[in-house]
From TrEMBL:
<dbReference type="Pfam" id="PF01812">
    <property type="entry name" value="5-FTHF_cyc-lig"/>
</dbReference>
<dbReference type="InterPro" id="IPR002698">
    <property type="entry name" value="FTHF_cligase"/>
</dbReference>
<keyword id="KW-0460">Magnesium</keyword>
<keyword id="KW-0547">Nucleotide-binding</keyword>
<protein>
    <recommendedName>
        <fullName>5-formyltetrahydrofolate cyclo-ligase</fullName>
        <ecNumber>6.3.3.2</ecNumber>
    </recommendedName>
</protein>
<dbReference type="GO" id="GO:0005524">
    <property type="term" value="F:ATP binding"/>
</dbReference>
<keyword id="KW-0067">ATP-binding</keyword>
<feature type="binding site">
    <location>
        <begin position="136"/>
        <end position="144"/>
    </location>
    <ligand>
        <name>ATP</name>
    </ligand>
</feature>
<feature type="binding site">
    <location>
        <begin position="5"/>
        <end position="9"/>
    </location>
    <ligand>
        <name>ATP</name>
    </ligand>
</feature>
<dbReference type="GO" id="GO:0035999">
    <property type="term" value="P:tetrahydrofolate interconversion"/>
</dbReference>
<dbReference type="GO" id="GO:0046872">
    <property type="term" value="F:metal ion binding"/>
</dbReference>
<dbReference type="GO" id="GO:0030272">
    <property type="term" value="F:5-formyltetrahydrofolate cyclo-ligase activity"/>
</dbReference>
<dbReference type="InterPro" id="IPR037171">
    <property type="entry name" value="NagB/RpiA_transferase-like"/>
</dbReference>
<feature type="binding site">
    <location>
        <position position="56"/>
    </location>
    <ligand>
        <name>substrate</name>
    </ligand>
</feature>
<feature type="binding site">
    <location>
        <position position="51"/>
    </location>
    <ligand>
        <name>substrate</name>
    </ligand>
</feature>
<comment type="similarity">
    <text>Belongs to the 5-formyltetrahydrofolate cyclo-ligase family.</text>
</comment>
<dbReference type="InterPro" id="IPR024185">
    <property type="entry name" value="FTHF_cligase-like_sf"/>
</dbReference>
Length: 211
């Protein structure tokens, strides 16, 4: 099964990297359009984003909008301790940046600006692959899985809402699941929004599945 995941990961990563800059810009604008007026975004004050890398769908316009609206915006950092853990750090106006060991830009670590993940309202996760039931394939480091592992202890959590972001071309028929996988609450692509109705009844105002 690990081989399946590895092969699939390689294929889906090259598919998203093959998108042209124009396709990337369009996808990013579509993402903005789908979320900017959504109750989930409007009501969330503490939101974790990511800086797009490796062809990921780019939430930068949404991040810029969130900052203009005075929301508290966080990014994942992997240069803290322990090394296999990810921390969410609130970005500041005069933020200093560094590159992590994967070559991804992240804020220079500052413990005082980090928040435990359960304090966040919304976490936007970059997906390598997904299926229509909410299974997710990430970069393979297990960072999101480990950071969110506490959620396995209870079926329903009100926050943070976990929203996976991906290009439509990253959708597959069925993903192999692993015991440590943490289910998503929803997925947004440049073409659709899918909700899984685990905890979103109060926030996802537009039904279980919508275009
Ligand atoms: N934009 C973004 N930021 C993010 C993540 C992400 O997926 N996207 N992460 C989400 O987890 C964390 C970084 N996780 C990563 C895990 C693996 C690889 C990666 O490229 N692995 C290489 C081998 C790396 C090496 O050891 O040199 C590979 O699989 O080929 C990159 C990032 C934190 N920040
Ligand atoms: N809760 C956990 N505790 C310890 N190790 C874990 C946990 N969750 C995942 N892992 C480890 O992380 C590794 C990567 O897992 P997987 O292939 O599912 O990554 P992924 O979901 O694609 O990545 P990510 O979570 O970073 O997006 C696996 O080898 C797994 O053993």
């Amino acid at each position: 099964m690990n081989d399946d995941r590895r092969i699939l990961r390689r294929r889906l990563r090259s598919a998203r990297r093959a998108l042209t800059p124009a396709q990337q810009r369009k996808a990013s604008q579509e993402l903005l359009r789908q979320l900017i007026h959504h109750q989930l975004f409007i009501r969330s004050r503490h939101i974790a984003f990511y800086l797009a890398n490796d062809g990921e769908i780019d939430p930068a316009p949404l991040l810029a909008a969130a900052r203009r609206l005075g929301k508290h915006c966080y990014l994942p950092i992997v240069t803290g301790w322990p090394a296999d853990r990810m921390h969410f750090q609130r970005i500041s106006r005069d933020q200093r940046w560094t590159k992590n060991r994967f070559g991804i830009v992240e804020p220079v670590a500052n413990r005082q600006r980090q928040a435990p993940v359960w304090r966040l309202d919304l976490v936007l996760l970059p997906l390598v692959g997904f299926d229509s039931t909410g299974n997710r394939l990430g970069m393979g480091g297990g960072f999101y899985d480990r950071t969110l592992a506490y959620r396995r202890r209870r079926k329903q959590w009100t926050r943070p809402v976990l929203l996976g972001l991906a290009h439509h071309c990253q959708k597959v028929e069925r993903l192999p699941t692993a015991s440590w996988d943490i289910p998503l609450d929803g997925i947004v692509t440049d073409q659709e929004k899918i909700w899984f109705q685990r905890c979103l009844s109060s926030t996802a105002s537009d039904g279980s599945r919508s275009k």
